[in-house]
Amino acid sequence: MSANGLDDAIYAASKELRGRGAPEPDVLFLMATGVDLLGTSYEVTWRLPLESVAGAPRCWRGLTLLAAETRTTCFWFLEDAPGDPQTGNAPAQDELPWARGFPCWLAACSGATVCVHTSAGYALPADDGVVRAGGLALVRDHINLSGGTPLFGLGESRLGPIFPDQTRVHHEGLRLLALRHGERLGIPLSEGVAACTAGPSIATRAERAFYARAGAHIAVQGLAAPLLAAAHAGLSCLALVAVIDADGETALESQLAAADSLAPALQDLLFALGPELGALARELREDPL
Q1: Could you tell me which residues come within 8 angstroms of residue 258 by beta carbon, excluding any fewer than 6 positions away?
Q2: Contact at 8 Å (CB) between 249 and 20?
Q3: Which of 67, 159, 190, 277 makes an SS bond possible with 46, Cβ 3.0 to 4.6 Å?
Q4: Residue 87, SS3?
């Protein structure tokens, strides 16, 4: 038994998935935005509720892991940021630090080399206007302002280094692919730095100004855990954010509706990226960074 419990949970879960016929993934789609739309683009070939999977943390047990296979590539799909609106992605009091990053380690242990994460975030005030509300943003770097990390206590884990190189987690090649397909499809894309914040709350004006002065262009809740887990697990990430306006006066329902309105464009982009994501995932498996 490992000292931290993560390795035991991942090995138990991956063994059970193999026993239940789970296809080995090339790419993990971890989706907080647009998850309901993928069924219209990819044909699901395998599914398993995580409720009964050994090792799955409680926060994931109400969700279902889906797989879709093409001739050359296997994609895993899972909804991110589990939790009800009252707690958002804030961890439960008895939750282990690594729990929210569990799917990244599970996918990497099962063969994946690429993680595509989708979410919604707030545009921050900036003179340069690099990232604007009403479009999609590609995260080229991040600042962890959440006050937590899923890597706490993983010094004895064999699933990755305790100090992973986060300069490589945001894969430039993945962003270039997305930019090229976005231009072809007429989908406006921008690149920016994400402030990874804790929720649930809408940032104050002072907080948004602080995030901007720190170098961020968008604020995203719940993004720190999957990015840190992906870095530890050795996954290359493409993080896409549906950017909404949050001036502190807009009702939450309106903000959610604004994020949903960007979901079709996000779906088109992800579907167009599929074949090249698979090819890049296989290249990374053969020649990791």
Answers
A1: 133, 134, 244, 245
A2: no
A3: 67
A4: coil
